[in-house]
Amino acid sequence: MKINEFKSILNKKNCNLALFYNSDSTRISPNMFYFSGYDGLGTLVIPRKQVPFLIVPEMEIERARRSMIKKVYSMDRKKFFESIYKIIRKKKSRIKNIAIDKNNFTLNSYKNFKKYFRKVKTKDISLDCAKLREIKIDKEIRLLKI
Fold it and tell me: Cα separation of 81 and 112, whole Å?
């Protein structure tokens, strides 16, 4: 929801983009859902200077298109982080510093992530996201009343 405010946090932390993911339908990333309205499998990428986009398996494309994020790309679920890396590179997004929600990254996922994002430095933004989600805007208040 507050993507512009979030981008200013990325700017302060000197991060090129933020990456939130769901690789398992039983563990939903609350931050991915908050910023996109999408709770399926895949990844939300929020570049600091570009439009956010989702990267999802082919079977989730239609569902992802109904989210708040309008740019959606298809990925190979068996090559989760490899697919994400390739799409980010195609979008010509700089990937020197990436903000991640370490509360949602398992150790195994982080190891797989680092196979493809070797030279990338990561910064934890879990507390920043929690603070941003604490204060509700009018649109969020209306949704809570429903």
Answer: 7
The count of other CB atoms within 10 Å of the CB of residue 23 is: 17
Domains in the chain and their CATH numbers? 3-145 (3.40.350.10)
Round to whole Å and give the CA distance between 85 and 21: 13
Q: pTM of the full predicted structure?
A: 0.88
Residues 24, 57: contact at Cβ < 8 Å? no
Distance, CA of 16 to chain centre: 13
Percent share of the chain, pLDDT over 70? 91
Beta-sheet pairing, 97-100 with 17-22: parallel
Q: What is the DSSP string of 105-127?
A: --HHHHHHHHHHSTT-EEEE-HH
